[in-house]
Amino acid sequence: MSAIPRHIAIVMDGNGRWATRRFLPRVAGHRQGVESLRRCVQACLDRDVRVLTVFAFSSENWDRPQDEVSGLMSLMVGVLAKEVMPLKANGVRLHFVGALHALSDKVRRGLEQAERDTADNSKLVLNICFNYGGRWDIAQAAQRLAEAGQPITEASLNEAMALSHVPDPDLVIRTGGEFRISNFLLWQSAYSEFVFSDKLWPDFDTAALDEAIASYGRRERRFGKTSDQVVAGRGA
Questions:
Q1: Starting from the edge strand earliest in sequence, which strands make up the sheet with 171-174, in order?
Q2: Is residue 182 left, alpha or beta, with left meaning phi > 0 and alpha meaning psi from -120 to 50?
Q3: Is 13 an annotated catalytic residue?
Q4: How many domains, the chain?
Q5: Position 148 in a domain
Q6: Please, are residues 5 and 167 in contact by the beta-carbon 8 Å criterion?
Q7: How many CB atoms lie under 10 A from the CB of residue 98?
Q8: Residue 140 lies in a domain
């Protein structure tokens, strides 16, 4: 097994707590979290990771204080204006995944333009899950199939999922010291390896990413088979 996962997914948790511990508004933590994401994208490019999927805003986050939600939306607009061209220059292709119709016209237009601007890139696919939930993803896939009169099977559901354009994540990382997946990639993470980090997302650096990748590399992924079958398959 390769020591480098092809697809890494991250629950970027801990921005608010990072800010609170510094007596800063929570949105300051989200701003710092953007810096951490920038580092992570570059690290994935350097390590030849092919897909990075991050949980930026869940469908449940609308219930947070209104000033934090508004700050997150404004931050997204600002990040798009500043970051899309450098991402394009580095070969990153952006995909925004989630119930995007619920966003304001301004935010949605920005996301769509960013996708168009980076559509020809192929070095790294960066999926940003925004207004996303794993249950929503399964439900919308089933609804699409039902409306099309198609049978609902594992294969057809998989093709209708919002992340059908990339392989399932090999490694899922959650920062912030929590031990749950919080409605993230419920379908796609069925056989993913998990790493839970105590670091708050703004403090998650390249060394922490390498530690998670190293942990992944020490594991044997059996996908329901026995160890002997896995070993035999490698030698085939």
A1: 92-97, 124-132, 51-58, 7-11, 171-174, 193-196
A2: left
A3: yes
A4: 1
A5: no
A6: no
A7: 24
A8: no
> CA 154, 196, 139: angle at the middle one, nearest 5?
25
Question: Does residue 116 belong to any structural domain of this protein?
Answer: yes
CA 39 from centre of chain: 15
Q: Is the pLDDT of residue 2 over 60?
A: no
> Is the pLDDT higher at 220 or at 35?
35
Beta partners for residue 53, in sequence order: 9, 127
Angle between helix 206-217 and 26-46 (nearest 10): 60
Domain holding 90: CATH number? 3.40.1180.10
Phi and psi, residue 203, nearest 5°: -95, 0
- Calculate mean pLDDT across residues 137-158: 97
DSSP state letters, 5-37: -SEEEEE---HHHHHHTTT--HHHHHHHHHHHH
pLDDT digit string (tens) for 48-95?
A: 999 999 999 887 777 777 878 887 888 888 888 899 999 999 999 999
Residue 213's domain comprises 7-133+169-220
Q: 163 lies in a domain?
A: no
Question: Of 46, 61, 121, 131, which one is the catalytic site residue?
Answer: 61
**Catalytic one among 13, 137, 168, 170?**
13
